[in-house]
């Protein structure tokens, strides 16, 4: 693969291949020596136009575990009003000889532009763009679900070999919260559909995008009914940003309390889930808003594991984008 | 209007088809149409003959909606370069929008733009005056002073911004009646479009760009036609883009409300699917809509609900487009491709005749702008020779960087379009010959 | 595991150099040599290099258990994927990363016998030694291969060889094993004489 820009571009086999590679990477991470020589002499640039210490550190760790050199390039602010343009930044990175650019950007589509405008020939890895996509987050979510749940719909009690080779056929996943502004939700809906899972988005109507009817999933405004009647295998709680509640007439819901009352995952709602169901959150959490402390800390929660899996998934993505002869690679992913 | 004829050139347009009708010879002399006669009957003595068999002769096109950017953004376009592009596109008159820097909200600025147009000599420039001071939507600009100025402003618009305050809009509609002006509304409810980047719908939900809902346009149009009816004013709706807007205009006209509406060439042909490329060339306001909307505006133009085509020619520098979609400027150029797009979407499909094209691109816009005494005239002996000669069988591939406009943000880059403006005449002087602009004074004007 | 350029599945030029019974005899001999060299089977583990090296490791383990029933063939065989340690990754399309399964008894302070089908440039074994070093610290590492075709590019030497097979650089060696290929065991050599170069 040449770039990793959107989960919507991944075929089932490509997605399973990525998860399988992640499983191999994860296996190396329990060793005393975690570092592999695979990408020695290659350069990964973390290009962050938006703050995200967690994502940057995860990518940095992944690249370093594969022995790549890592350059962190923070370019906050609007490219036009506050300094260097995306194009000039890209040309600079090209001149520096970057082999891969991990890009986080406030503008939807910026990674796509970097990959396609002809400004640089490095592999582009989308680390989250605007309200569009966050492919490695969706991949680590799918990886986590597969580890815990693969084969369940086929009647297996627990997945064999962390589910290597398997997809997520038949699994039910509820994604709850601010779907409208969430690149995590978009990335997950596309990937989970490709992997055979069923998805229900649960949100107040103000936080469901117009046009959602074209997405390969169901939508519901009722969290309780979804949990009780649909019995999801995994519940993914999305972060609700504080600024969505303020803004007077433009606020998306009346108050944090009301949001938590209808859309927060608490101990009572947790108890209505099937016994095997897992609770996920891309972090950082707003405890007491979209998720209560009881839910976040319960043994159903795999939120900390998601973080660890993020490193393996990002190692896999870097490996698949960078290790081989790039001129021989066909697809954009 | 200053007489701009550069010399005594007499032109014989041999075998042209006025409004696509029967072939004739048309003789232009001393700035007017001197003779219309049978093919081969016009004398070639001392005249420049243009062999134009099967070429269509139209009245010079009149654009009601052009951004010339001067004063303020001469890096994107000047009055000279913009009107040169207009001439290449077959236009003999443009209405220059008010969102310059400084804003055209005083007699001084509109007179400056008007004078720059006269100096350039490519086309008549009719400045549009701002409705509100600084386009801020808070208090009326001195509309009367602009109307009384040398620029004789009749069209007022805050284009780029909407006159969203209902009381202010009412006052503007009423006030301009005193001098037979018209308010051209950029219909965009600002609160519903805060941060909006593209049409709100299936595509915006997928590509993650903030949505610009159709209702934000339709709600303002609905309000404004009712206001116009209430105060008995005429209203012009700029760049209508949605199926719902067409319905509202149709309804308003059926009630006898004095409203006119325009559609841009790009809304006649392009859809929001183009946003999937994240190429900011396709970022425009109002945004490209769905295929169903494109069909609806074509229907509206065909049945007369939509009165005119106006380009909303919006040049931007490369820096303002070669960046993230969210950071890029809204707008696309259109003067040099408008007629071709109308031919492709409406004429070649049999939905408009060439006479209809003359109506929607010349006669009616001239009437709305109240310049019908000098522009958008019939093709008849004694009329001013503002004419456009089109070869409808030509095909050309658009190259943004070689266009006459100073900016390259055409959405039709590398597209093949039908039709070629062969010649444009402004009061008998050729501003374009063989598809190439002809400066008033060689070495001047063309170089800017 | 670098048998040279890939071989078309039914290369008519292929000459069989080892038959199924030759392969079986060679493995039996290697098994005896391993025991002899290690003075028994204590602390012995086998690590196969995918794909056919793993199969060969399992076959050798079965023979070791026959020679000395104290050898636990289940617990003392593993597989070692060397993909991420290769020095030629950038020269070809991306390889899938394989699985590494350590023997149940581990490799610390054991005598590890690396098992591969064909020994050629030696670069695969170089990668395997690096991989092994990241996983643990065996007491000793030995190398067993079914075929040694020469042309070493690094100073690596096998301890146990089924057959030394002098080849030209351009020739190709193909190993087939029943468990992997679904046909009778064989070793073939192809690309001899005038075929040289053209197939590379």
UniProtKB/TrEMBL annotation, chain A:
HAMAP family: Asp_carb_tr (MF_00001). It holds the Pfam family OTCace. The keyword NADP does not apply. Transmembrane segments: none annotated. L-aspartate binds at residues 82, 183, 239. Its EC number is 2.1.3.2. It catalyses: carbamoyl phosphate + L-aspartate = N-carbamoyl-L-aspartate + phosphate + H(+). Residues 2-146 form the Aspartate/ornithine carbamoyltransferase carbamoyl-P binding domain. It comes from Isoptericola halotolerans. Heterododecamer (2C3:3R2) of six catalytic PyrB chains organized as two trimers (C3), and six regulatory PyrI chains organized as three dimers (R2). Residues 170-321 form the Aspartate/ornithine carbamoyltransferase Asp/Orn-binding domain. Belongs to the aspartate/ornithine carbamoyltransferase superfamily. ATCase family. This is Aspartate carbamoyltransferase. PROSITE patterns: CARBAMOYLTRANSFERASE (PS00097). InterPro entries: Asp/Orn_carbamoyltranf_P-bd, Asp/Orn_carbamoylTrfase, Asp/Orn_carbamoylTrfase_sf, Asp_carbamoyltransf, Asp_carbamoyltransf_Asp/Orn-bd. SUPFAM superfamilies: Aspartate/ornithine carbamoyltransferase. The keyword Transferase applies. It is an enzyme of class 2 (transferase). Catalyzes the condensation of carbamoyl phosphate and aspartate to form carbamoyl aspartate and inorganic phosphate, the committed step in the de novo pyrimidine nucleotide biosynthesis pathway. It comes from the Bacteria. Carbamoyl phosphate binds at residues 54-55, 104, 134, 137, 283-284. One of its GO terms (molecular function) is aspartate carbamoyltransferase activity.
TrEMBL record, chain B:
Keywords: Hydrolase, Metal-binding, Pyrimidine biosynthesis, Zinc. InterPro entries: DHOase, DHOase/Allantoinase_Hydrolase, DHOase_cat, Dihydroorotase_CS, Metal-dep_hydrolase_composite, Metal_Hydrolase. The keyword Metal-binding applies. Pathway: Pyrimidine metabolism; UMP biosynthesis via de novo pathway; (S)-dihydroorotate from bicarbonate: step 3/3. The keyword DNA-binding does not apply. It catalyses: (S)-dihydroorotate + H2O = N-carbamoyl-L-aspartate + H(+). Catalyzes the reversible cyclization of carbamoyl aspartate to dihydroorotate. This is Dihydroorotase. The lineage of its organism: Bacteria, Bacillati, Actinomycetota, Actinomycetes, Micrococcales. The gene is pyrC.
UniProtKB/TrEMBL annotation, chain C:
SUPFAM superfamilies: PRTase-like. It comes from the Bacteria. Belongs to the purine/pyrimidine phosphoribosyltransferase family. PyrR subfamily. Pfam families: Pribosyltran (PF00156). A motif (PRPP-binding) lies at residues 112-124. Coiled coil: none annotated. The keyword Iron does not apply. Signal peptide: none annotated. Regulates the transcription of the pyrimidine nucleotide (pyr) operon in response to exogenous pyrimidines. Also displays a weak uracil phosphoribosyltransferase activity which is not physiologically significant. Keywords: Glycosyltransferase, Transcription, Transcription regulation, Transferase. It catalyses: UMP + diphosphate = 5-phospho-alpha-D-ribose 1-diphosphate + uracil. InterPro entries: PRTase-like, PRTase_dom, PyrR, PyrR_bifunctional. GO terms for molecular function: uracil phosphoribosyltransferase activity. Residues 18-163 form the Phosphoribosyltransferase domain. Transmembrane segments: none annotated. This is Bifunctional protein PyrR.
């Amino acid at each position: 693969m040449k770039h990793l820009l959107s989960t919507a571009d991944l075929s089932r086999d490509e997605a399973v291949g990525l998860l399988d590679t992640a499983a191999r990477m994860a296996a190396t991470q329990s060793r005393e020596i975690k570092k592999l020589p695979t990408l020695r002499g290659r350069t990964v640039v973390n290009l962050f136009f938006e703050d995200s210490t967690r994502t940057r550190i995860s990518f940095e760790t992944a690249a370093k575990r594969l022995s790549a050199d890592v350059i962190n390039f923070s370019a906050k602010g609007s490219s036009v009003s506050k300094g260097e343009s995306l194009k000039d930044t890209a040309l600079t990175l090209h001149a520096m000889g970057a082999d891969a650019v991990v890009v986080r950007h406030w503008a939807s589509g910026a990674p796509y532009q970097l990959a396609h405008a002809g400004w640089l020939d490095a592999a582009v890895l989308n680390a989250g763009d605007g309200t569009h996509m966050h492919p490695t987050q969706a991949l680590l979510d799918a990886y986590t679900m597969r580890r815990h749940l693969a084969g369940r719909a086929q009647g297996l009690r627990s997945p064999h070999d962390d589910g290597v080779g398997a997809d997520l056929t038949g699994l039910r996943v509820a994604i709850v919260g601010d779907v409208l502004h969430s690149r995590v939700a978009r990335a997950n809906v596309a990937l989970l559909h490709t992997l055979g899972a069923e998805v229900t988005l649960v949100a107040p109507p103000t936080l469901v995008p117009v046009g959602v009817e074209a997405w390969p999933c169901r939508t519901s405004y009722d969290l309780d009914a979804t949990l009780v009647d649909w019995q999801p295998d995994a519940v993914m709680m999305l972060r609700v940003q504080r600024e969505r509640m303020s803004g007077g007439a433009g606020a998306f819901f009346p108050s944090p309390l009301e949001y938590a009352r209808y859309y927060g995952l608490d101990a009572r709602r947790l108890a209505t889930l099937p016994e095997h169901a897992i609770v996920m959150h891309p972090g950082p959490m707003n405890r007491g808003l979209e998720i209560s402390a009881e839910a976040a800390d319960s043994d159903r929660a795999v939120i900390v594991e998601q973080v660890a899996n993020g490193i393996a998934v990002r190692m896999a993505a870097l490996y698949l984008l960078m290790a081989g002869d790039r001129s021989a690679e066909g697809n954009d992913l | 209007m200053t007489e701009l004829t550069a010399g005594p050139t007499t032109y014989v347009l041999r075998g042209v088809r006025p409004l696509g009708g029967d072939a004739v010879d048309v003789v232009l002399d001393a700035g007017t149409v001197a003779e219309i006669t049978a093919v081969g009957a016009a004398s070639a003595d001392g005249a420049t003959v243009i062999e134009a068999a099967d070429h269509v002769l139209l009245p010079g096109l009149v654009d009601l909606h052009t951004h010339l950017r001067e004063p303020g953004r001469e890096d994107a376009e000047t009055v000279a370069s913009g009107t040169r592009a207009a001439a290449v596109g077959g236009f003999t008159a443009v209405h220059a929008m008010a969102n310059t820097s400084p804003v055209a909200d005083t007699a001084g600025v509109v007179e400056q733009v008007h004078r720059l147009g006269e100096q350039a000599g490519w086309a008549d420039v009719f400045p549009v005056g701002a409705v509100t001071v600084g386009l801020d939507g808070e208090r009326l600009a001195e509309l009367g002073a602009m109307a009384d100025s040398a620029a004789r402003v009749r069209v007022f618009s805050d284009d780029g911004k909407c006159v969203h305050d209902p009381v202010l809009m009412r006052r503007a509609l009423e006030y301009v009646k005193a001098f037979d002006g018209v308010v051209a509304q950029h219909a965009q409810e600002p609160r519903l479009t805060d941060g909006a980047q593209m049409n709100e719908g299936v595509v915006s939900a997928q590509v993650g760009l903030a949505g610009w809902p159709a209702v934000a346009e339709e709600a303002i149009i609905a309000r404004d036609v009712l206001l116009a009816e209430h105060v008995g004013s005429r209203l012009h709706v700029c760049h209508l883009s949605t199926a719902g807007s067409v319905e509202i205009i149709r309804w308003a006209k059926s009630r006898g409300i004095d409203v006119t509406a325009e559609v841009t060439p790009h809304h006649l042909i392009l859809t929001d699917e183009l946003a999937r490329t994240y190429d900011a060339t396709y970022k425009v306001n109002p945004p490209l809509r769905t295929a169903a909307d494109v069909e609806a505006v074509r229907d509206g133009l065909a049945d007369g609900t939509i009165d005119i085509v106006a380009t909303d020619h919006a040049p931007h520098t490369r820096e303002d487009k070669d960046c993230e979609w969210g950071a890029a400027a809204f707008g696309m150029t259109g003067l040099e491709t408008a007629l071709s797009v109308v031919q492709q979407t409406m004429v070649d499909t049999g939905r408009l005749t060439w006479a209809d094209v003359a109506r929607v691109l010349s006669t009616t816009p001239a009437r709305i702008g109240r310049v019908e005494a000098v522009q958008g005239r019939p093709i008849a002996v004694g009329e001013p020779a503002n004419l456009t000669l089109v070869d409808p069988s030509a095909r050309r591939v658009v190259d943004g960087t070689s266009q006459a406009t100073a900016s390259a943000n055409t959405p039709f880059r590398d597209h093949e379009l039908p039709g070629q403006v062969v010649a444009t005449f402004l009061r008998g002087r050729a501003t374009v010959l063989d598809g190439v602009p002809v400066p008033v004074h060689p070495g001047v004007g063309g170089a800017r | 595991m670098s048998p040279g350029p890939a071989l078309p599945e039914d290369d008519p030029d292929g000459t069989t150099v080892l038959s199924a019974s030759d392969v079986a005899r060679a493995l039996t001999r290697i098994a005896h040599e391993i025991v002899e060299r290690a003075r028994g089977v204590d602390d012995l583990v086998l690590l196969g290099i995918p794909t056919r090296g793993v199969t060969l490791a399992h076959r050798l383990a079965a023979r070791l258990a026959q020679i000395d029933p104290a050898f636990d063939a289940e617990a003392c065989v593993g597989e070692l994927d060397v993909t991420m340690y290769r020095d030629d990754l950038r020269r070809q399309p991306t390889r899938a990363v394989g699985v590494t399964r350590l023997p149940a008894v581990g490799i610390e302070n054991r005598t590890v016998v690396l098992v591969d089908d064909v020994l050629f440039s030696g670069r695969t074994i170089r990668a395997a030694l690096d991989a092994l070093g990241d996983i643990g610290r065996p007491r000793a590492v030995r190398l067993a291969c079914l075929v040694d075709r020469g042309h070493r590019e690094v100073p690596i030497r096998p301890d146990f060889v089924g057959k030394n097979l002098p080849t030209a650089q351009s020739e190709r060696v193909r190993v087939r094993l029943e468990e992997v290929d679904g046909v009778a065991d064989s070793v073939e050599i192809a690309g001899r004489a005038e075929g040289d170069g053209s197939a590379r």
